[in-house]
């Protein structure tokens, strides 16, 4: 079966395999190929340009005829249906808070039996609530903890899910935002959490500075842990209200990231204050399908006009479906 792969000398094979695992782009559906001199490591996608610097020079991208891996049991085989869950590090998070205890326990047992990377199964007891955007969980099976380390695009994020919000579902979006950043830019992440946007950007070595702000002291604790864990440079973690911090750093930002979709509109005045002339606001919202963008663009425009400034909409996109007839959207607007 033909697959895109990395051809690498055997002496460098383990190094490249580990990099691919960190980036989560090693295709495990087929067996790694080899001959006398080389390994052929199958890819689920090609590395992004910013990821290529992690690899040794000896690699080559080619196609190779791989053999399929023998299929391992999956939860569906044991349950008779596909359970809804997401994996954060080595924790599986069940998506349906209405599951009764018996069904949740069945799903948890199936996950632990078929997914050796999963060590804990959690069920949410509450939605994401409060100014710190956290929720309560129950451990259904496995190790009694809510802390884990999640790997994404070569970064590691330590997080306690009961103390700080984190979702792996925005990994592609975080990489997309990175593509907007140019060398020497100053980036302000107004609602940084444990750092998935800020640290990815800082590790790219593009920006001169990343300012990562969050009001949740637990999130900032893990943010600082993750800065060390990832050896990220040119990044400052700030515990505080984004409105107040904006006054200290007014006019400094080439990019302002506003990933707080339910209430980012309340902080638009501060985002405009932060943004230098020609800087870009990355604004996130939750909108209905019959008004995906226009109302949000108008909110950004009014905030800019209040400060005597104008906007130029550079891009607008649906990030993901959020609920029936509701979408998580992003608007890129230049402030002039």
UniProtKB/TrEMBL annotation:
<feature type="domain" description="SAM-dependent methyltransferase TRM5/TYW2-type">
    <location>
        <begin position="85"/>
        <end position="336"/>
    </location>
</feature>
<keyword id="KW-0819">tRNA processing</keyword>
<dbReference type="InterPro" id="IPR030382">
    <property type="entry name" value="MeTrfase_TRM5/TYW2"/>
</dbReference>
<dbReference type="InterPro" id="IPR040601">
    <property type="entry name" value="Trm5a/b_N"/>
</dbReference>
<dbReference type="Pfam" id="PF25133">
    <property type="entry name" value="TYW2_N_2"/>
</dbReference>
<keyword id="KW-0963">Cytoplasm</keyword>
<dbReference type="GO" id="GO:0008175">
    <property type="term" value="F:tRNA methyltransferase activity"/>
</dbReference>
<dbReference type="InterPro" id="IPR056744">
    <property type="entry name" value="TRM5/TYW2-like_N"/>
</dbReference>
<protein>
    <submittedName>
        <fullName>tRNA (Guanine37-N1)-methyltransferase</fullName>
    </submittedName>
</protein>
<dbReference type="InterPro" id="IPR056743">
    <property type="entry name" value="TRM5-TYW2-like_MTfase"/>
</dbReference>
<keyword id="KW-0808">Transferase</keyword>
<keyword id="KW-0949">S-adenosyl-L-methionine</keyword>
<dbReference type="Pfam" id="PF02475">
    <property type="entry name" value="TRM5-TYW2_MTfase"/>
</dbReference>
<dbReference type="GO" id="GO:0002939">
    <property type="term" value="P:tRNA N1-guanine methylation"/>
</dbReference>
<dbReference type="GO" id="GO:0005737">
    <property type="term" value="C:cytoplasm"/>
</dbReference>
<keyword id="KW-0489">Methyltransferase</keyword>
<dbReference type="InterPro" id="IPR029063">
    <property type="entry name" value="SAM-dependent_MTases_sf"/>
</dbReference>
<dbReference type="Pfam" id="PF18093">
    <property type="entry name" value="Trm5_N"/>
</dbReference>
């Amino acid at each position: 079966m033909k697959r895109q792969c990395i051809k690498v000398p055997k002496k460098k094979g383990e190094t490249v395999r580990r990099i691919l695992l960190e980036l989560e782009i090693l295709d495990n559906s087929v067996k790694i190929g080899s001959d006398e001199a080389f390994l052929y490591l199958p890819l689920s996608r090609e590395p992004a340009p910013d990821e290529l610097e992690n690899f040794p020079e000896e690699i080559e991208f080619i196609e190779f005829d791989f053999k399929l891996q023998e299929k391992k049991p999956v939860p569906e085989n044991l349950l008779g249906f596909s359970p809804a869950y997401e994996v954060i590090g080595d924790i599986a998070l069940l998506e349906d808070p209405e599951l009764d205890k018996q069904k949740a326990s069945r799903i948890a047992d199936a996950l632990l039996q078929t997914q050796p990377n999963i060590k804990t199964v959690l069920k949410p007891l509450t939605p994401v609530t409060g100014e710190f955007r956290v929720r309560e969980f129950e451990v259904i099976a496995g190790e009694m903890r809510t802390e884990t380390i999640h790997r994404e695009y070569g970064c590691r994020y330590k997080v306690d899910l009961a103390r700080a919000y984190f979702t792996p579902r925005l990994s592609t979006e975080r990489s997309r935002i990175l593509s907007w950043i140019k060398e020497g830019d100053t980036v302000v992440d107004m609602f940084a959490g444990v750092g998935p946007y800020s640290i990815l950007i800082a590790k790219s070595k593009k920006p001169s500075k990343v300012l990562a702000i969050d009001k949740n002291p637990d999130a900032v604790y893990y943010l600082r842990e993750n800065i060390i864990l990832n050896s990220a440079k040119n990044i400052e973690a700030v515990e505080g209200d984004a409105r107040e911090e904006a006054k200290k750093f007014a006019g400094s930002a080439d990019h302002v990231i506003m990933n707080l979709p339910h209430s980012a509109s309340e902080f638009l005045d501060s985002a405009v204050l932060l943004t230098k002339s020609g800087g870009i606001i990355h604004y996130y919202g939750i909108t209905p399908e019959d008004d995906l963008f226009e109302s949000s663009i108008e909110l950004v425009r009014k905030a800019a006009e209040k400060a005597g400034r104008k906007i130029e909409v550079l891009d607008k996109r649906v990030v993901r479906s959020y609920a029936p007839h509701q979408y998580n959207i992003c608007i890129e607007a230049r402030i002039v």
